[in-house]
Amino acid sequence: MDTIASLFSFITTPVSWVIVQFHSVYGKVFGPDTGWAWGLSIVSLVILIRICLIPLFVKQIKATRAMQTLQPEMKKIQERYKNDKQRQSEEMMKLYKESGTNPLSSCLPILAQSPFFFALYHVLNGIATGKTIGVINDSLLASARNAHIFGAPLAAKFTDGSSKVAALGATLTDVRVVTAVMIVMMSASQFYTQRQLMTKNVDTTVKTPFMQQQKMLMYVFPVMFAIFGINFPVGVLVYWLTTNVWTMGQQMYVIHNNPTPGSKAQAAYLERLTKHVTHHEKTRSRGEKAIVKAIVSKGRERNEFERKFINSLTKVGLVAQPDGTVVKGESTAVESEDGTTTTPATPRRQQPKRQTKAQRQSAAAKAADDSAEHTDDDADEPKTSLSKSDEPEDAKPATAAKKAAPKPAGGTRSKAQSGQRKGPQRPKSPSKK
Fold first, then answer.
1. DSSP states along 297-359
2. CB neighbours (10 Å) of residue 315?
3. Angle between helices 234-257 and 108-129 (to 10 degrees)
4. Among 31, 152, 287, 370, which one has the highest count of C-beta atoms within 10 angstroms of its own C-beta?
5. What number of H helices and E strands is found in the chain?
6. Backbone phi, then psi, for 149, in 5-degree steps?
7. Cα(332)–Cα(341) distance, rounded to whole angstroms?
8. Which residues 6+ apart lie within 8 Å of 278 measured at CB?
9. What is the pLDDT of residues 240-291, one digit of tens each?
10. Do the strands 318-320 and 152-153 form a parallel or antiparallel pair, or are they unpaired?
11. 19/13 Cα distance (integer angstroms)
């Protein structure tokens, strides 16, 4: 490890200078020889480095999403050239070049952070061995060797013996307990960060070997941190624990406000955005406008959650615009699962339910009784010359005869005689003898 750290000695002086500057500030508050002054100096160094790495982190997010977008094409190449590894690699590189993506872009923050990590390790290792490094002189070296964090010296390791720990002014039990707790916290934060990424911020519609690799790394990285952590000084554990917590919080913020399309985090975000937009009837922040603009521009390529968002706005009379704004509209078009836009049809008129034979017979008998009563009432009512009839004179006898004609009982139909057709019969022509 010392050989690897020595390769990054060119950055040791800047790292030691930053630590000394933070120590001079915190030393005035907590005392120059306290663990708080040196520990907070290391934490401040981490925060400063991670702030400088934010542009690389944004680039990492874009590269990761671009890789997720290419997963279906990568899977096709793997299936097509599964027996030709060389051709498969060539096609993969061609795909990366055409899409403008780089698989190493997702590792940029870790690669950029590595020099600072090894430089800090080199500085703390020098403190443990009593050597001045960078801008740390003899007085600062003595102050750092006397600094303890919860009873453990900054330069102590889990694997140190009792004699070395005693030389740093501590007990072996304190060093083992403090380093073990920090190693567990460091591994747990790494595991939670990776698990949060896999369970919430991964496109669930794409099943590729890339996802299997990410699941494997979710368990491999914590084990690696636990193995290497026993050889890290307490100061380096403080550095690595702080950067893991920063990464976890930074990722939680990204998942909450800018989730991966097709992920569970996007479904939760669009549900919150729907409630917010329908309540205010507009998009208020630039981030909301950017999300809505991206969804509208996709058209038929929208996923399930994005179509649900557009349909929810349509149901309350809102229409998303290409510039990301939301306005009131009269459109009632609804987007289906295949991406086509349809207008809900008017409800069809329901046909009356067909009656049974018994119901038809009872209804016919009731109608016959009502008709008979109506005829009797008309017969008893005196007619005057001033009363007008709605029917012509020629139709009255026929109407009266029709009303007076009794209907067959039970509403049954009269059956035609055997061998005869229904209706008027044509007279038979005389047979020729």
1. HHGGG--HHHHHHHHHHHHTTEEE-TTS-EEE-----EE-TTS-EE-PPPPPPPPPPPPPHHH
2. 11
3. 160
4. 152
5. 17, 6
6. -115, 110
7. 10
8. 312, 313, 316, 318
9. 899 899 988 988 888 888 887 778 888 888 899 899 888 888 888 888 888 8
10. unpaired
11. 10
Render 214-273 in DSSP notation, one character per residue: HHHHHHHHHHHHHHHHTTS-HHHHHHHHHHHHHHHHHHHHHHHHSPPTTSHHHHHHHHHH
132 DSSP assignment: -
Report the alpha-carbon angle 422-427-428, nearest 5. 105
On whether the pTM is more than 0.85, the answer is: no
Return the closest-CA partner of residue 237 out of 228, 247, 245, 229.
Answer: 229
pLDDT value at position 119?
83
Structure tokens at 300: 């038929």
**Both structure tokens of 180:** 């073990």
Report the distance separating Cα 125 and Cα 111, nearest Å.
Answer: 22
pLDDT at 421 over 60: no
The tokens for 49 are: 């480095």
Q: Which residue has the tokens 């554990």?
A: 237
Whole-angstrom distance between the N-terminal and C-terminal Cα of the chain? 132
